[in-house]
Amino acid sequence: MSSSLKQKHQCLVTPREYDNLGKYKINADFVKFYAQEECYRELMVSYYPMLPLLEHTVPFEEADYILYMHMYARLEDYSDFVAKQLKNIAKQRKSGAEIIVLGKAANAEKLLNGYISNITFWGDHFTEKLGKKFDMDIKEQYFVYDNIEKHLAIWPVDGCLNKCKFCRRSYMEIKFESLSLDTIRANLDIIRLNTPECMKKISIRAENLTEYGIDIYGKPMLHELIYLIDSYDEVEEIEFPIGMCIGEITPQILEALCYSKKITELSMNLETGSDRLLKLIGKKHTCEQAREIFRKVHISNPNVKIFTTIMLGLPTENIGDIWDTAKLIIDTKPDDIHCNYFICSPNLPLAKYPQISNSCREYHLKQFIVFLKELGVNEPYEFTMDCYRFYKRPLSRKIIRKIEELNKDNKYLEKQGLLPEHFVMYFRGRLK
Ligand code: SF4
What we know:
Elements: H1 3-12, E1 26-27, H2 29-35, H3 40-54, E2 65-69, H4 79-92, E3 98-102, H5 109-112, E4 119-122, H6 126-133, E5 143-146, E6 151-154, E7 157-158, E8 177-178, H7 181-194, E9 201-204, H8 214-217, H9 222-230, E10 237-244, H10 251-259, E11 263-268, H11 275-281, H12 287-300, E12 305-312, H13 319-332, E13 336-341, H14 358-375, E14 381-388, H15 397-409, E15 414-419, E16 424-431
Parallel strand pairs: 1-2, 2-3, 3-4, 6-9, 9-10, 10-11, 11-12, 12-13, 13-14
Antiparallel strand pairs: 5-6, 7-8, 14-16, 15-16
Helix pairs in contact: 1-3, 3-6, 9-10, 10-12, 13-14, 14-15
The structure holds iron/sulfur cluster (SF4).
The site of iron/sulfur cluster (SF4) has 9 residues, from loops.
């Protein structure tokens, strides 16, 4: 186990000896290997509580049980790779050994179509299911104090009921499930009683927070959750780093977001500034709604930092869409923009459209930077922008030159770093 994992293990799992583990011959090489690349939720909620089990495993060829986990479709679509790997494992395993596929990778079940025998797929609550199978007291943890980030992370809901056409959710299932407000209150009360200092900063996380409660209460209840967490005197800061779907922010949710002065960070993904493209990719909001929501949050909570994501290179995107996206950025004034290229996989509904070329995509990024500057002429606006590249090609000279020009022209610009060799463009600027 790496030292950072050990550190997490020590902070998250109460060490306990299990004397029954010799009874089971379990191999978990694939879990240990792929879990390192998993998302924060999978690691904190499921993987770390599973560590006591993973410490007592046997080599692959001796195993009666082979545990398998894969990030499957975290940033890219690995469905075919996972199906192929499971077929290979099935061929090479000891006779009679059972394969247990955990988490997102359980989505491969439909691809395998009964091809492998003696295989179990557990997409949800798999740590708890492993605990029951191997007589261990382990299960998912939805309230975790992260002593590195120094926040109490809470996952009040899992899954998402939408199927945006650029998102893995369009071809991947994860059970939608909320924790009740009573459960959340009971857990917070216990934490307040035992370790109130851990409640200072709360990080509320989920793939879709705006749908919180629909399965239990028949309507979204994020606003009630915000009021509940805000009501604890021990809580000084609340952050929402992911999971806020702009088109699902109801008037009640917006009111709660504006009400709580403890909110310091809010992530709301604009994706694009073109209503035509928003419709094409299946987002529920319009640009006007986004403008209104950002405006109200900025006015009522001037200290909240708003993070957003935009995608460039969407099918049918044209230079007018890029202008509109730059305009929306200037109007909504997010503090931090993650600028991603759209990456198409064959399983996405958007794959049916012709995809725009790499050079066109790069031209759009260059123009986006130019438009931001042109549009920011009358109004000073400070922001940070990251442009991640998933393709193994450094940024072109054209783009680097544009960033350099922007840096040079702007006396307020504070250059933080330009690392094309790491496929990341990162700058902090004030447009004026
Ligand atoms: S709301 Fe978010 S998580 Fe849900 S499908 Fe859309 S992009 Fe994916």
